[in-house]
Specification:
Blueprint: E1 2-8, H1 13-23, E2 33-40, H2 47-53, E3 57-60, H3 69-81, E4 91-94, H4 103-108, E5 113-117, H5 129-135, E6 140-147, E7 157-164, H6 171-196
Parallel strand pairs: 1-2, 1-4, 2-3, 4-5
Antiparallel strand pairs: 5-6, 6-7
The structure holds glycinamide ribonucleotide (GAR).
Glycinamide ribonucleotide is lined by residues 8, 10-14, 47, 95-96, 116-118, 143, 179, 182.
Amino acid sequence: MKNIVILISGSGSNMAAIVGAARRDDWAGSLGARVVAVISNRAGAGGLALASEQGVATHVLEHRAFATREAFDAALTALIERYDSPTGSALVVLAGFMRILGPVFVNRYAGRLLNIHPSLLPAFAGLHTHERALAAGCKFVGATVHQVTAELDHGPILAQAVVPVLPADTAQTLAARVLTQEHLIYPRAIAELLQKQ
Ligand code: GAR
């Protein structure tokens, strides 16, 4: 069974969806993997409590405690590697992790580093995706699961969900509707990737 390490910065709802999918026997396309650790770069991340409630090990690695991006990335690598197992290196899943990872880190985890982004990439890479989609008059928005490469919010697309924009939508209502779809496509994309490995 493969180990999964999830990196978060905030509420951790995608993380909780993946933990749940990994545990449920009845889940269509069972993950065949277990979430062994959740790491946050922010001590106040709500997802830490959610992970603890589920009995998942949690760590806080504050990026502000490190002088450089490289030093933070190196400490993160050392922490993740504690969770490598005889069945191989851990899959590293970014779930609302709002910190850019440097090229050394990204190359080290090539092929086993995933991200979810709240837009239909390649549209709206970066921040404030829902505000920008509304301002552009988009009729459909969505979310994308992709492999992480050195270029921000790029990399091979593994899954997408399309969500209609309703006339009364605000960035908040849109974000909430997209998030419900994220919870479905992220576990499924992980399962499909693991089945291929
Ligand atoms: C999600 O909408 C995720 O797509 C987004 O942050 C939210 C995290 O929610 N990620 C990014 O914007 C990354 N660029 P969660 O903490 O409840 O999973």
